Amino acid sequence: MARGLDFQSAMQRPAFPWTARLAVAAALFPVAALLAQDAPSQPEQPPSRIIEGRVDPYSYNPKDTEGHADPDVRGYYDSLGPVATEWHQHVQTLSSPFFEGRAPGSRGCELAAEYVEFQFRKAGLEPAFPEPGSAKADATASTWTSYRQPFDLPAAGPKLVDASARALDRSLELSKDFSVLGNSGSGSFDAPLIFAGYAIEEGREGYTSFSPDVDFSGRAVIMLRYEPLDEEGKSLWSDRRFSPASGAAAKFAAIARRNPAAIIMVNPPGARDGRRTLETTETSRFGERMDIPVIQLDQDVADALMRAADPEGRSLMEWRRMADLGEVKSVPLRSDVKLAATTKLEDNVMRTDNVGGVLRGRGSLADEWVIVGAHYDHVGYGAYGTSPQFRGQLHPGADDNASGTATMMMLAKRMADLYDSEDAPADARSILFMGFGAEEIGLNGSEHWTRNPTIDQSRIQFMLNLDMVGRMRNDELAVSGTGSAKDFIAILRPVFDASGLTIRADPSGRGPSDHASFYNAGIPVLFFFTGSHGEYHTPKDVGHTVNPVGGTKVLALAESTVRMLATRPERLEFQTSDTSTAGRRMGARVRLGVMPGYGDDGAQGVKVEGVSAETSASEAGIRQGDLLIAWNGEALDGPATMMERLREHKPGDVVKITYRRDGAETTVDVTLKAAQGQ
Question: Does pTM top 0.85 for this prediction?
Answer without folding.
Answer: no
